[in-house]
Fold:
Amino acid sequence: MVTATAGFENTLKELGLGEGWRWDKGSWWFEPAEHIDVRDTTEYMRKLEARFIAITAMERPDKEIRLDYQWDLNGQLLSFVTATRDHQIPTIADLSPAADWVERETHEYFAVEFTGRESTKPLMTRAGDAIGINLHKDKEVAK
Amino acid sequence: MSFRIPIGPYHPALEEPYKLELVCDGETVRDATMNVGFNFRGIEYLAERRNYLQGITLVERVCGICSNVHSLSFCQAVEQLTGAEPPERALYIRVILAELERLHSHFLWSGIAAKLIGFKTIFMACFTLREKVMDALSAISGNRVNYGMNRIGGVNRDITDPKAVLAILDEMERGISSTIIPIFLEDKTVASRCKGVGILTQEQAKAMGAVGPLARASGVPQDIRKAAPYAAYDRFDFKVPVETTCDVRARLVVHALEMIESCSILRQALSTLPEGPFHTTPPTAARFKVPAGTAVSRVEAPRGEVFYQITSNGTDIPERVRVRTPTFMNMATVRFTVLGQELADSPLIQASCDPCYSCTDR
Structure:
C-alpha cells in the first residue's frame, strides 16, 4: 500500500498550495468549503512542473458534479476537490492541453459544461448521441 | 496542393480501431486529427452496477495485453478501503506477474515496430521470445491473456516452482541480449529509419501529460514503480531507462532497456520469494460490503501509469469507478509527432506510442 510521505503537507504549504491538505487512501486531498478556482490552480501547478493526471467526476446528492482534479507532483498524488455550479465549470484545456480529452470525456459521461472551450467535440460517443451516460441511475446488479 | 487522407478506423498497421485524418502537402504531413471511441464499452458505467468481486473480472477485460494491471489497480484501491493488507508473498507474486506482463507487451510492441521498420526477421524473433513469456504466464496462472490472478487481499494462485520460471527467464534474457539489444541499439538500418523521426519534445510530453516509455524517451524520468512504489517494488534494485533524443529510436531504446530491467526485477523476485500465505482469507462472500470512502491506486503498466479511483458508499457495489489509462494520455501526442514528417513514416510514428485502443476507449 502506498503510504504518506511524512511532513509533505508542510511542503505543500511552503510551495504555496494552501493549508488543510490531508492524506487518505493513496492521495493528498485538498477540499476547501468554497469552490476552487481551477484555472488559477492549473496555472500554478504548471509552474511547479506538476503533471496533470485526470479529472474524476461523481454526481452529488444535490445533482451537481463533484470534480477531483488530480496532479502528480514529484511522485505525490494531489487531488483538488471542487464541484460544478449549474453543471458548469471553466475549462483548463487551454492552460493544460493534457486536460482536453479528459474534459471531453467528462462532458459525455456527466453532462458537465466546460465553459470557455471553442467546442466540446464528442470523444467516445458520436455527434448527436445523448450526453450524461454515467448519470443514469438504473443500478441493476448483474446476477 | 493539400490532400486529406483518412486512415482507419480499420487500420493497416494495428489491429485496433481508431481514425486518423492527415492533411498532407505532397508527402509531408501538415495537420492531424485523431478520432477514438470505436471500442467504447462503458466499463466505468458497468463497474458501478456490479459488486466488487464481479468488478475485478470486468476491469481485467479493459485490455487484452495489460489485463493484469487493471485488476491489480482495482484490488489495490479496494484493499485501501477495506484495510485488507496482502501478505508479503502475494506482493512478490504481483510484481512477478506485472513484470512478465510488461515483457510480453514490450515483445509485442518491439515485434510490431520491427515489422513497420521493415525488419520482419526481428518481428519473428520478438514473437518467438514472447511465446516464452506466455508459457510462463500460462504455467503460473493457467491463462495466456486474462490471468485472473488478483483478488482483494492477495492473489488467487501461488507460484509453486519459481526455478522453472527462472529457467524460462534465462532463455528470454539470452534472446534479448543477443537479438533485440544489438538490433535496436546498434543496427545502422534501424537507426537510419528511426533517428530524428516522430519527435515529441520534453515540453510537449509534459504539456500533454504523456506517461510510460513514451515520456521516458522524451527525457521525462517518471515511473510509478520508483516514484510511488506499490506491491513489493521498493524491495528491488532496478533502473528507469531515460533517453533524451525524443524520437522513434529513443522509444526503441527505452523499450529494449526496460526489458533488461524487467528481467532483473523478475530474477530478484523469483530468487527471494518469501514463504507464507499468498492471500488473506476474505472476501469470498458474493455480497462483500466495502466501508464507505474514496481510494486511489496507481500502477506502472507497460505503457505507463494506470490510475483508478474508487468511491464506496458502504454497500457491495461501488458508487464510482474511475479508470484512466496510459494510452488515453499518450495518443493525443500523435498530432505533434507526425507534423512535418513523411506520410510513409506515419504508421511507424503512431505505433511508436505503443497505442492500446481497448484501454483508451474502455
About this structure: The first strand of chain B starts at residue 2 and ends at 7. Chain B touches chain A through 47 residues (CB under 8 Å). The mean pLDDT of chain B is 89.
